[in-house]
């Protein structure tokens, strides 16, 4: 008598095992990120107690707050308390605002999401065609122009572009909006639903507010989009050059296919999976790296909140921001892996 292994229909044990390994890797990565940030924050020369009580407070008040924050306990005990509260969804209170860190992040993060989303759309819609254009004209004038634009966009600091953009398009020409997300006369007219001002104003029919928000977001989004466009176009060019030198491209041309068909239906389709990862990582970088642009344009987003928290030594807020950044990158990598399997059957 032979015993056959029980096999549930539609479920692959190998796939389940792979998902379990990936989940463990994600959790260990986030835990290591939290531990590293926590211990670095505790050895920084900034004193969170002084940020709360001020430099004129007496010693008894200082010691009371010091004990309330748990700073009198060993570091591993403090980290254990933090993980315990984290499992209950409590990231602590921010010294900067006095509110819960989760509430602060929920308030400021949509502004960064809106800015980064518009920027990545600009960077992708411009960068991918430029990269393909440069690859098909390798060594010629068009290729050189695209490479110079990409080099400038990638190497010149974004804060310099931001200041020059404000000087030219806001101060001199008056085409762009100034600081903030909207003109002061329209501030508060739109009820917060999604936190995305363009979406909320459009849903509520506040078209004057929508136009003002669009005018304010265009310049910072274009500057961030230029930075991501430079990276995306360079990678697209590199991927396309590798494909255009393959034998199947030569075969397609010998068969008499049009150059447009060869480029977009053959070569470009084979780099699409790689581009998904590049765009996902660029988007994650915009979500956590828009600090300088948000500072220049006084954009009330996640980057400005993180910067202010760092300067104040508010480790609860910093830890919450770091955790969110880690989750963003892990999530985007998981999405990219899933899209790999959708677009490339060989990875299934």
TrEMBL record:
Cross-referenced Gene3D superfamilies: MetI-like
Domain ABC transmembrane type-1: 109-340
PROSITE patterns referenced in this protein's UniProt entry, alphabetically: ABC_TM1
Transmembrane segments: 21-41, 115-136, 148-173, 213-232, 271-297, 317-340
Domain of life: Bacteria
Membrane topology, record value: Multi-pass membrane protein
Cell compartments where the protein resides: Cell membrane
Keywords for this protein: Cell membrane, Membrane, Transmembrane, Transmembrane helix, Transport
Similarity field: Belongs to the binding-protein-dependent transport system permease family.
Protein name, UniProt field: ABC transporter permease
């Amino acid at each position: 008598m032979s015993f056959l292994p029980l096999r549930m229909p539609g479920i692959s044990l190998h796939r389940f095992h792979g998902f379990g390994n990936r989940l463990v890797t994600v959790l260990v990565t986030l835990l290591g990120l939290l531990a590293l940030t926590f211990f670095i924050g505790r050895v920084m020369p900034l004193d969170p107690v002084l940020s709360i009580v001020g430099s004129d407070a007496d010693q008894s008040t200082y010691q009371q707050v010091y004990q309330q924050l748990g700073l009198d306990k060993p570091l591993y005990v403090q980290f254990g308390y933090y993980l315990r509260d984290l499992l209950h969804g409590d990231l602590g209170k921010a010294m900067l605002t006095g509110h819960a860190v989760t509430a602060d992040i929920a308030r400021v993060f949509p502004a960064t999401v809106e800015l980064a989303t518009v920027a990545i759309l600009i960077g992708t819609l411009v960068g991918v065609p430029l990269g393909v254009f440069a690859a098909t004209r390798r060594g010629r004038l068009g290729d050189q122009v695209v490479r110079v634009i990409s080099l400038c966009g990638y190497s010149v600091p974004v804060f310099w572009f931001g200041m020059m953009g404000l000087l030219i398009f806001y101060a001199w020409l008056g085409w762009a909006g100034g600081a903030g997300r909207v003109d002061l006369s329209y501030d508060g007219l739109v009820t917060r639903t999604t936190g995305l001002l363009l979406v909320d104003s459009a849903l509520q029919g506040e078209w004057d507010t929508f136009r003002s928000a669009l005018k304010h977001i265009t310049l910072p989004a274009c500057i961030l989009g230029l930075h991501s466009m430079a990276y995306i176009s360079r990678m697209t060019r590199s991927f396309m050059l590798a494909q255009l030198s393959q034998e199947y491209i030569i075969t397609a041309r010998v068969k008499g296919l049009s150059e447009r068909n060869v480029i977009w239906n053959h070569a470009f389709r084979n780099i699409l999976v790689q581009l998904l990862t590049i765009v996902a990582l660029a988007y994650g970088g915009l979500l956590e790296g828009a600090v300088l642009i948000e500072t220049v344009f006084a954009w009330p987003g996640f980057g400005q909140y993180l910067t202010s928290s760092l300067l104040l030594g508010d480790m609860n807020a910093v830890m919450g921001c770091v955790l969110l950044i880690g989750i963003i990158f892990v999530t985007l990598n998981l999405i990219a892996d899933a899209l790999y399997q959708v677009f490339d059957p060989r990875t299934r």
